[in-house]
Design brief:
This protein is mostly helical. Helices cover 52% and strands 0% of the residues. α1 runs antiparallel to α2 (56-77). The protein is flat, with a radius of gyration of 28 Å.
């Protein structure tokens, strides 16, 4: 082939960059991604181990938020996902995958929460069906009135 067809690789040594539009990261970008990943892991670990917030639900919500940010950091710095790679189709496929994962996780959590509330024994009755101390039988005269 002539230099007019492949001017940058006339000898066929393969030194050209035919990896497409998706650029590989530099050492510096990998170190930034690694540093962000360590920070986004260390902060939730510290929140849990030192019980800074005192509220387990709030701590859980904050941990999920840090996890979501860490997923984005990994996609940008390690997977090199952006809107320019493959004409944006890989980004669209990733966005669809994330939407489906959020729907499945949120739906599963919702179902488990409601199953826990609706299927677990009530506080007035222990696992054997006997009344706890402090309650008389008149409070449970009709079992069909149980919530």
């Amino acid at each position: 082939m002539s230099d007019a067809v492949h001017p940058h690789d006339a000898h066929g040594h393969g030194h050209d960059d035919h990896h497409g539009e998706g650029a590989h990261g530099s050492f510096g970008s990998y170190m930034i991604g690694f540093g962000l990943s360590v920070i986004l892991t260390a902060i939730p670990f510290w929140l849990v181990m030192s019980n800074v917030l005192g509220d387990p639900k709030l701590t859980g919500i904050i941990i999920v938020a840090f996890a979501a940010v860490q997923v984005v950091v990994h996609m940008i710095y390690f997977l090199h996902m952006n809107t320019r790679v493959e004409g944006g189709w890989s980004f669209m496929a990733m966005a669809l995958t994330l939407v489906l994962v959020v729907i499945v996780l949120a739906g599963s959590t919702w179902v488990m929460y409601h199953m826990n509330n609706n299927m677990m024994p009530h506080a007035d009755i222990d696992m054997t069906g006997e009344m706890n101390a402090g309650h008389d039988m008149s409070t449970m005269a009709n079992m069909s009135e149980m919530p």
